[in-house]
Design brief:
Helices cover 33% and strands 26% of the residues. By secondary structure, the protein is of the alpha+beta class.
């Protein structure tokens, strides 16, 4: 991993600040400093894998879903890995299990190859693999995730499309990060609405503005769901009434079914060779109620407040760098850990709030936290 001088300075500053906080706060809380709970980087620039696995291990709802139904080999290995990491067990044992996770679907050989890779792509592939494995186990099909993924298109795993009439609360057969979106286009001339289109997501990708600046997680999500004006829209109703051949319309997108675990991906793609350095201010709690439809999907008395469990940050440039994970410690909101491969230190939440390079944020429905 090659970092430029400014990037190295930022990384060193973060580590030094976190270390100082661990001395003041971590020791009194009984945290281990620099030992246990980490994952080795096995010489394959695998920090992106370690950071994502740490984030998932910090999310209780995700861990509960692994044991809600009959486990497949991938889910079982992840469950054992999380148990060792969460009790600050052997780094060697945890790293061996991480190797087994990768071996389940041959990420290092066919899907990803060696060298620096993307944490978001790994996360999405991993969640899809778990879903495929869970469905196959529920249906009594003897099929491992690795055999499915090795034959899948390189761009993505087989998509699991929602079945007609199944828009409901998540069931035990689903990985708890799967949500549904609903979108339609409304003509601004005659108010005619198009047929509602249903889609699914495992994480929401928020494109950061090129202008830079500072945005909160809530700002990013609000921008993602902001209605989009479409110019030159050919409305069928206007054509029938001979009002106009084309005009303006508004595309409205909502999330009629929010998942128990809501993951936000902050896309930092800019011009080729450059990374978007917009600072994302991390919030302990976000309210997703404004982006959920009230008339179908979620059902009554389900809170739309979500609490932060982990964040994966990328330190570096568009050409390379290092992934780290800030995660909750022992499910206590005000106690956090900074995980950089096998190095684990205690940090206060104030260190999380000033962390740069936020790339993936993991939120969990507040009623469960």
């Amino acid at each position: 991993m090659v970092l430029s001088r400014p990037d190295v300075a930022i990384f060193v500053a973060v580590i030094v600040a976190a270390s100082a906080a661990a001395f003041v706060v971590g020791r009194s809380a009984g945290w281990s400093h620099g030992r246990g709970g980490g994952l080795r980087n096995m010489g394959e620039s695998r920090c992106y894998v370690n950071a994502v696995l740490q984030a998932l291990a910090a999310t209780p709802t995700f861990l509960s879903s692994l044991t809600a139904t009959r486990l497949g080999p991938l889910a079982e290995t992840l469950s054992m890995l999380a148990e060792i990491v969460n009790r600050a067990g052997s780094v060697t044992a945890a790293s061996t299990l991480a190797d087994r996770v990768l071996a389940e679907f041959s990420l290092l050989s066919e899907q990803f190859g060696s060298g620096q890779q993307d944490a978001h792509e790994f996360l999405v592939r991993l969640l899809e693999a778990l879903q495929v494995e869970r469905v196959s186990s529920r249906c009594g099909i003897s099929l491992s995730a690795s055999s499915i993924i090795s034959t899948a298109p390189r761009s993505r795993f087989p998509a699991l499309r929602p079945v007609t009439g199944c828009i409901q609360r998540p069931t035990t057969i689903e990985v708890p990060t799967r949500g549904l979106t609903s979108s339609c286009v409304v003509c601004l001339s005659c108010s005619h609405s198009s047929i509602e289109q249903i889609g699914e997501f495992r994480c929401v990708t928020c494109v950061l503005p090129l202008a830079g600046g500072v945005l909160s997680v809530g700002d990013c999500i609000a921008e993602h769901f902001r209605p989009q004006v479409i110019d030159g829209y050919a409305c069928d109703m206007c054509s029938r009434r001979r009002l106009a051949s084309s005009g303006s319309a508004c595309k409205i997108t909502r999330a009629p079914r929010l998942p128990p675990v809501f993951i936000v991906h902050f896309s930092r793609l800019a011009t080729p060779g450059y990374r978007n350095e917009t600072f994302v201010r991390l919030e302990k709690t976000i309210d997703l109620a404004p982006h959920a439809s009230a008339d179908w999907g979620n059902g009554p008395a389900i809170s739309e407040l979500y609490a932060l469990t982990a964040v994966v940050c990328h330190l570096g440039s568009a050409f390379g760098g290092h992934y780290v994970c800030y995660r909750r410690h022992s499910h206590e909101v005000d106690q956090w850990l900074l995980c950089s491969d096998e190095k684990v230190i205690g940090v206060p939440f104030s260190a999380v709030q000033v962390a740069g390079g936020a790339y993936l944020a993991f939120y969990e429905r507040n009623e469960i936290v």
